Amino acid sequence: MEKIKSNIDYNDAVIDVENLSKSFGDRQILRDVDLKLFRGENLVVLGRSGTGKSVLIKLISGLLKPDSGTINVLGEVVNDLKERELMQLRLKIGFSFQNSALYDSMTVRENLEFPLVRNKRNLTRAEIDKEVEDVLEGVGLSQAINQMPSELSGGQKKRIGIARTLILRPDIMLYDEPTAGLDPITCLDINTLINEVQERYRTSSIIITHDLACAKMVGDRMVMLLDGRFERQGKFEEIFDTDDARVKPFYDYNFIV
Question: Which residues lie closer than 8 Å to 76 by C-beta, 6 or more apart?
Fold first, then answer.
């Protein structure tokens, strides 16, 4: 199933990366990378493991410093921000981690309340309850509100992790391998949820993945990271309509093996 076009404003880049480079020691990970994420867009970043996909989103969020280049997020030049300013910007960016990052000692309700209480201290009990109930409804898990993470399936944990991210109503969502470790049916559910989040919450998202079924279902546009650069971009068919020896095995592994 290929993604149906969403309501995207191609005149409004919420992330604008120019000439971005990053190395670790003698190993250059990103080489003069340019990237734009437009308002309302789901942008898929494809690439093999270890090619720098996760490094990219850490740079965008200011968790890593670039060697060179500029990163503009929601009108702020990330490179120039002080720590307090970075913290404020990160409240507008939602992170969905591979492992869901839930606190095992807290119920689902407490996991969702935590970022609200920490970042919006003036909320009443009734307001907190409503926010929790709303995001749980949004990810289809209202019934799990009093459960512990240990009682949830892998797919349910992913949904709750996304709900906890959404509860602060971020403008941008960053998904890091959202379908990793899930069975095919649960992968389909998570892909559907990513599209629903885009429509319901009007998010602009970067989805880091090497799962081509995920990419095809959620991506409005795709870019492929090859040898530290985005050398291919476009729709799914445009990315893989090539004899490039670096690209064809990637497709074959996903859809033939």
Answer: 85, 89
**In degrees rounded to 5, what are phi and psi of residue 230?**
-85, 95
Question: Closest Cα to residue 174, out of 140, 207, 134, 223?
Answer: 207
pLDDT tens digits along 166-216: 999 999 999 999 998 889 999 999 999 999 999 999 999 999 998 899 999
Same domain as 250, residue 176: yes
Q: Do 35 and 78 share a structural domain? A: yes
Tokens of 163: 């709900």
24 and 39 inside one domain: yes
Comparing CA positions, the residue from 64, 63, 150 lying closest to residue 100 is 150
Angle at 163 between CA 219 and CA 198, to 5 degrees: 30
**pTM score of the predicted model:** 0.91
Q: Per-residue DSSP letters for 99-143?
A: TTT--TTS-HHHHHHHHHHHH-TT--HHHHHHHHHHHHHHTT-GG
pLDDT at 16: 97
Whether residues 16 and 65 fall in one domain: yes
The encoded tokens of residue 77 equal 């030049």
104 vs 255, higher pLDDT: 104
Task: Give the whole-angstrom CA distance, residue 48 versus residue 249.
Answer: 10
Cβ neighbourhood burial of 7 (10 Å; 0-12, 13-18, 19+): exposed
User: How far is C-alpha 187 from the chain's CA centre?
Assistant: 15
